[in-house]
Amino acid sequence: MAYKIGYVDPSFNTPEELMMAANLIPYRIFGDPTIDLMDADKFVPPNHCFWARNCLQRGLNGLDKDIKGIIITHACDCSNREYDIWYSHVPYDFYYFLNAPLKRDKISLKFFINDLKELKFQLEEHFGAEITDKKLYEAINLTNEIRKLLKKISEYRNKGLLLGSEFHAIIKNAYKSDKKDVLHNLKEKLKKLEIKEPLPYVDGSKKRILLTGSILDDTEILIYLESLGFEIVTDDLCIGTRYFHNLIEITGDPIKDIANFHLSKPPYSTEHPSSGRFDFIKTLAEKYQVQGVICLVQKFCEPLLYEYPFFRDSFKKIGMPFIFLEKEYKRDSYKQLSTKLEAFKEILRGVKK
Amino acid sequence: MGRHYLAIEQAYRDGTPTAWATSGTSVEMLYTFDVQPILPENAATISAAQKVSKKYIESAEDLGFSYDLCSYFKTNVGAMQNNAPIDLGGIKPPTFMVAADVICDTHVKWFQVQSQRYKVPLYIIDVPHVTSNTTNKQKEYYQSYVEEQMLELMDWISEITKKEYNEEKSREVITNSYELSEYWIKIFELRKTIPCPVSTKDTFGGLFPLFTMPGLKEPIRVFKKMYQETKERVDNGIGALENEQFRLLFEGIPFWYNLKFFGVLEQWGAIIVFEPYTYSFGKFLDPTMTKDYIINNPIKAMSKIMLSFWYIYDLETRVKEFKRVIKEWKIDGVILHNNLSCRPNSCGMYDLKQRLMEEEGIPSLVIEADMNDPRKMNEEQLKNKLESFMEILQKNKKQ
């Protein structure tokens, strides 16, 4: 049985292919908004990112026994010093802090390649696996196939054949399961979608929206949005479009190709420059003819809190209805958003599809 | 510091290049190109000291910036929004901006926002984060990464200022910075003496030239004088506090709007003799950074400073260094400021407290407030906490 490497990533810059080539299953650690943070609160002050503290609590509670090591990837401040807390209190023999760069230029690429090579070296040393170029390209081909399928499947959201929440659950599964199983399941899913009739819920009263924000890993929040009458036809999220928007280009140097892939993804709020994120959202919003944009942000998510006025003003300029909502990472708090969301739906009533 | 602000005003009058920089960024690089540095964090502390930071913070919140964001950032946004005068922490848009994520990613977001608002070019230095298990091999390529960016920054500034990089000037600047830091560290060494010759009032007040003027000659003279006076006090057995009973370490940025609060400690005969925050601006703390090294490798030294900054030490190093300081500075108790504006610094504080208490038997207290936002400080509650803490210290001393 293959072992897993758990990784915490507030964005998406973790090279799954490196783990796969070491015969390990990359397992993205998600939060669990139903658990209590009693232990995490002993180590991290309560005004720190709710989601990151929740992930730490999951680690403290004990993760899946097949997980044999932890990678934490840099994206924002919450990933940096919390790594040391994980390292001190969640016992694993293998730990790696991946310094995913802030910038997307040549110097950063060179650095990221060095850091990926070091991760490769440490994985090989610790797990006694040889990560060859051949194995890396096998992994790359597999994840590229998965991305192509996810891209196709994602389009069914726009055709009214797949709920945004269903698609979210599919991506989550892709992040934490054996990629061979993922490929098989996605092929099956696509076959079913290709012959599927439009869903009965597509009654014209639903409001077509683009979902953006910080890391949103609880599918229930999407289900909640849908229950209020929103149809999530597209997104620019890590657990969403950012995972499959690009493919890894194959040039003969697999580590470089992986690094390049991550630095070429659509811009994100934790990077520099980040203003391109708005342009990417705008392009998606136009392509999928959404009526509005919902930006859901985890409480204390600084990168997004800094961007809010820019987003608000930029969407206003293009006449796109936009709502920014900060939420706690607790499932029973979602209903507190209903008044604002109902009001937003009213605004969208007059917006043409 | 008045000299620094006069120089800023002069630069705007003359139309010579100015640059905003975040603390921890290589201000020395700016002086190398005769660019006048302006540190918005420093300006924000002036707003706080002048009791106007709350007004500016609220003004930034009116623009949509969250209550939970960094109060330095919001003070800066609000001060500019209200055209605040320089003596209230007002600064103007510069020729360009340089930020680094040495201390926090917040610095990057802050300057992204302001460079966008004022349409000013921005260069970001990405500094990798050193953690508890970072290896020496990793540190080597981290160092190369920062160095390469410094070389790129050099070209970038050269293009904006139309000025060539001058190696001689660079050596002069880094040497001045080194000498300034040397005096600072020497003053800290003198603080090991019982009674402690200088209080936290002097170090919090005297700190600023280290990050606004490192590279100039004038502050060295001031620091030298400060050192000589401190030395004299030590030689004559004069302490900053008449009846020194307890020696404390204060971790974190102070509450700039209420520095007099620290005076409350005097009633218990307690004095703060070490602050990692102010000490960290001694910068050349990596033992490999000798005077010879920095003179021969100015750019490498500037890069190294960013990677070895005390304020951002990983948890293991932080614990180790705190233990050393407790021993050498003869600390009786530790106060840790869980600064609501500085999440990176407050992260790890609970572990630090626990380990100092368990492994060193040092009473430690975490207090909650904010460096620039007076709304987030409950003075009465803090006094009560300190009172209980001092009782513990008193009991400890008797045992």
List the helices and strands and how they pair.
The complex is a heterodimer of chains A (353) and B (399).
Chain A: E1 4-8, H1 16-21, E2 25-28, H2 40-43, H3 50-61, E3 67-73, H4 77-89, E4 94-98, H5 106-127, H6 133-158, H7 164-176, H8 179-194, E5 207-213, H9 219-227, E6 230-235, H10 241-244, H11 254-263, H12 276-287, E7 292-298, H13 302-317, E8 322-327, H14 338-349
Helix pairs in contact in A: 3-4, 5-11, 6-7, 6-8, 7-8, 7-9
Chain B: H1 2-14, E1 18-21, H2 27-32, E2 36-38, H3 40-49, H4 53-62, H5 71-81, E3 96-100, H6 106-118, E4 122-125, H7 136-161, H8 167-190, H9 200-206, H10 209-212, H11 218-235, E5 246-251, E6 270-274, H12 276-280, H13 291-296, H14 298-307, H15 315-328, E7 333-339, H16 343-346, H17 349-360, E8 364-369, H18 379-398
Helix pairs in contact in B: 3-5, 4-5, 7-14, 8-11, 8-14, 15-17
Structure description:
The complex is a heterodimer of chains A (353) and B (399). Chain A is 50% helix and 13% strand. Chain A has 353 residues and is of the alpha/beta class. Chain A has a domain of 131 residues: Rossmann fold (3-Layer(aba) Sandwich), CATH 3.40.50.11890. With 399 residues, chain B is of the alpha/beta class. Chain B has 18 helices and 8 strands. In chain B, the strands form 2 sheets. A 4-stranded parallel beta sheet of chain B has the order 2-1-3-4, with helices on both faces. In chain B, strands 6-5-7-8 form a 4-stranded parallel beta sheet, sandwiched between helices. Chains A and B meet through helix 4, helix 5 and helix 13 of A and helix 6, helix 7, helix 16 and helix 17 of B.
